[in-house]
Request: fold
Amino acid sequence: MSLRSPKSFFAPLAVGAPAPLREIPARPSRAIHFFDPSNEKMAAKVPQMVGTVDVLLGNLEDAVKADNKVAAREGLVKIAQSTANLGGQSSPTQLWTRINSLDSPWALDDLTTLVPAIGDRLDVIMVPKVQGAEDIHYVDRLLAQLEAKAGLTRPILVHAILETARGVAEVESIALASPRMQGISLGPADLAADRKMKTTRVGGGHPGYLVRQDPADGDINGPRAIFQQDLWHYTIAKMVDACATAGIYPYYGPFGDITDVVACEDQFRNAFLLGCVGTWSLHPKQIEIANRVFSPSVEDIRHARRVVAAMGDGTGAVMLDGKMEDDASLKQCLVLVELAERLAAIDPDLKALYDGITLDD
Ligand code: GLV
Ligand code: MG
Reply:
């Protein structure tokens, strides 16, 4: 028999480790802003960013040079220990880290250094290049042992990056691998390489990936509209389903062209519409885009509240502006209304915006 008892799922994996959470808190995480803790200029900006972004992530993996790996790890410890209000349950800004990949020379030291030193401040550990559930099981047990040793009272959550072909094929088992699983992000750059896609970018579309309108009157050289297609649609949709099934949260990932704020916003919005709750930010410019895109618009909330009001006890169907609304459209509206409530609770500007919405024409 290979099945684990469902009861054991919620027992700590080491004596003295905190009990796993039964539900992953829906903390706002519209932008996960990456910084390199070995870069003194970037590190110096961290304290003033607390309260301005939902998540600050100290990156130890790719984009940190091999020679700087130890400095990045130690820099993150210093920042977490010296920055007031960063990370932990009551902080306005969560503290996450991205450790090095499990087959690298640094991953073990990342975990054994960070958990004892700053485990009480670290909300989520992002694990890159996840291949399957076995990677999550490894981190799960090791974290439990380290938490027990450090006397932590709250489990550190785990987030997987979807950036290997096998990871995509096994995304459901990754999402369901542990009660620690908080969410999954798309990792388009590594995923493209692992799949042997023929792109050379970090996230976003490609002008060559398109469909073309049929020729008019058989004239293949006549005017024919072309529509660029989204390279990431399949992967994001698959990730969203896996996350929703497991009760965890899906995210877009990096958008590397910092100057192209328009295409960045489009990619983020597609992910939001498909069910993602947030994205990565590689530059302060992208925080503003993410916060806007991953917060429901005034128009959406106004419409959603009108549907809620019109639907009364939530059963049956009503006509509103010529459109049929029923319990299924009501449920969609409630997703938006509840998200707006959670965001208003942490963002006074959004609260004022949503509070100012009137339902009359
Ligand atoms: C992110 O890590 C990516 O590879 O896209
Ligand atoms: Mg990557």
Remarks:
- The two ends are 62 Å apart (CA to CA).
- The chain has two domains: 7-293, 298-355.
- The chain is about 40% helix and 15% strand.
